[in-house]
Specification:
By secondary structure, this protein is α/β, with parallel strands linked by helices. The protein is globular and about 45 Å long. It has one domain: Rossmann fold (3-Layer(aba) Sandwich). This is 3-oxoacyl-[acyl-carrier protein] reductase.
């Protein structure tokens, strides 16, 4: 049965791979964008996740076209790396607002329809850095760690209504976000990845479609690493 899926930040990168994977299996897929073109075959809804009104309007548009969102993949995220002493409060709160409060805004709005339907899947894209920490990434790591407590709270609140809530912690994925890292840093990271390579975006997407599937009905509150072994032990 085709489900109504929303992937935030699904216009490019990991989010686009996730959106395509759901669309390939026949689901009705919407993606948020902030003014860019929408990839073919997907419903683009303009939405900045830092703005609750835009979130509400995007969900209303999806409801009218695809029906209430049944599978939410909260993927939109940003980095703004710098060492603690140089990090302004604005840099800290801006990253938290996009990555963590943004997830709260979309999950809260999505839960309305899911509760009515008594079925839903919430998938949050965190990061291996949320568990291990990252020098120069205090804001980002805090936001990604926060997603875990958030998702597990929802797992407890909503489990009785057939709504699962899980987290994926990708390792190093080759996208625009990581392209900006200095070559030396990339090599350092790669040296710590047991499988010895970056992830392909499709490998993160496979975990997302699995968590959205009926086969994953008994998995909730889980943190699923897709990191080539980078985060083992955390
Ligand atoms: P990209 O930088 O390639 O894409 C980020 C996406 O998030 C874009 O679609 C962007 O939209 C969207 N976005 C950012 N801020 C907002 C906002 N306020 N409102 C709506 N959309 C927003 O990143 P990746 O694809 O690499 O990352 C996707 C997710 O995966 C992120 O949450 C990231 O933290 C996480 N991740 C990435 C890893 C990696 O190695 N790449 C590793 C671990 C986790 P727009 O096009 O408008 O900018």
């Amino acid at each position: 049965m085709a489900r109504s899926v929303l992937v935030t930040g699904g216009n490019r990168g990991i989010g686009l791979a996730i959106a395509r994977a759901f669309a390939d299996q026949g689901d009705k897929v919407a993606v948020t964008h902030r003014g860019s073109d929408t990839p073919d075959g997907l419903l683009g809804v303009k939405c900045d996740v830092t703005d609750a009104q835009q979130v509400d309007a995007a969900f209303t548009e999806i409801e009218e076209t695809h029906g209430p969102v049944e599978i939410l993949v909260s993927n939109a995220g940003i980095t703004d790396d710098t060492l603690l002493l140089r990090m302004s409060e604005e840099q800290f709160t801006r990253v938290l607002d996009a990555n963590l409060t943004g997830a709260f805004r979309v999950a809260k709005r999505a839960s309305r329809g899911m509760l009515k339907k008594r079925w839903g899947r919430l998938v949050f894209i965190s990061s291996v850095v949320g568990l291990s920490g990252g020098a120069g990434q205090a804001n980002y790591a805090a936001s990604k760690a926060g997603l875990i407590g958030f998702a597990r709270s929802l797992a407890r609140e909503l489990g009785g209504r057939n709504i699962t809530s899980n987290v994926i912690t990708p390792g190093f994925v080759a996208t625009e976000m990581t392209a900006v890292l200095p070559e030396e840093r990339k090599q350092q990271i790669l040296a710590q990845v047991p499988v010895g390579r970056y992830a392909d975006t499709a490998e993160i997407a496979a975990a997302a479609t699995f968590l959205g599937s009926d086969a994953a009905a008994y998995i909730t509150g889980a943190v699923l690493p897709v990191d080539g072994g980078l985060g083992m032990g955390h």
